[in-house]
Amino acid sequence: MPVSKTAFLFDLDGTLVDSVYDHVLAWHDALLAENIELPVWRIHRRIGMSGGLFANMLLRETGLEISQERIANLRRVHKESYAKRSANVRPLPGARELLAYLTQAKIPWAIATSGRMETAGPVLKTLGVDPAKTPVVTRDQVRFAKPDPDLFIEAADRLGIDITTASVVGDAIWDMLAARRARALGIGLLSGGYGEEELVRSGAYRVFAEPADMLRHIDEIGGRQV
Q1: What percent of the chain has pLDDT over 90?
Q2: How far, in Å, CA of 151 to CA of 137, rounded?
Q3: HSE-CB of 144 using CA atoms within 13 angstroms
């Protein structure tokens, strides 16, 4: 039987770029604009979901009315607040080098993010990723975002691969849950603030500190050059 070559499907925020806490603070600004007080640690626990689902769950936790108008306002203020911070977002250590290695080794890779292109675009540019050359799937291109598997399934389709041969790389439990539902392997990174035990419990079979750590162990997860 022919050997199936692996592929890597990357989350973006907290996985390749150091932007998780910028999103947390932007959501905090959005909640305050709606006169909703919520500790930032509770906000962090939901980062990685789509903006709509995220807002829905936070409002449900607070017991407040969940209206489409309120959700739209939260998303709008979050987008405006994050836009002010995104200019300072930088790639995580080893992120550029990891992607360069995969490209040089001819190992397929793509990015699948719960963010929309309007927020993902600036950080993709900082990362050196051109969506015209590399498959990038954003929230506005699929029906459901994480923890549903749609983003990663679409990314695999664009690479022309069977997702069961791919590894999903993410920093949040929502990435790992989506990977399990897509029947892909899950690789967790600690760079988004979740603990190793949480990532493993959600489905990660390996956990690394950040992209640089993953690159050092790339041969252990099917990333060898042919």
Answers
A1: 59
A2: 6
A3: 9
DSSP tag of 133:
T
The CA-atom distances, in angstroms, between 170 and each of 30, 49, 167 are 25, 12, 10
The DSSP 8-state label assigned to residue 193 in this structure reads: S
Phi and psi based region of residue 193 (left: phi greater than 0; alpha: psi -120 to 50; beta: remaining): left
Contact 49, 114 (CB under 8 A): yes
Q: Tell me how far apart the alpha carbons of residues 161 and 165 are, in angstroms, rounded to a whole number.
A: 8
Distance CA 176, CA 112 (A): 13
What is the enclosing helix (H) or strand (E) of 167? strand 166-170
Using an 8 Å Cβ cutoff, are 152 and 158 in contact? no
CB of 26 within 8 A of CB of 201?
Answer: no
- pLDDT score at 187: 98
The residues carrying an active-site annotation are 11, 13
pLDDT of res. 2: 46
Region of 128 (left: φ > 0; alpha: ψ -120 to 50; beta: rest) is: left
Q: Which residues pair with 186 in a beta bridge?
A: 168, 204
Cβ-contact 136, 114 below 8 angstroms? no
116, 115, 30: which is closest to 72 by C-alpha? 30
User: What 8-state DSSP symbol labels residue 218?
Assistant: G
Residue pair 188/170 in contact by the 8 Å Cβ criterion: yes
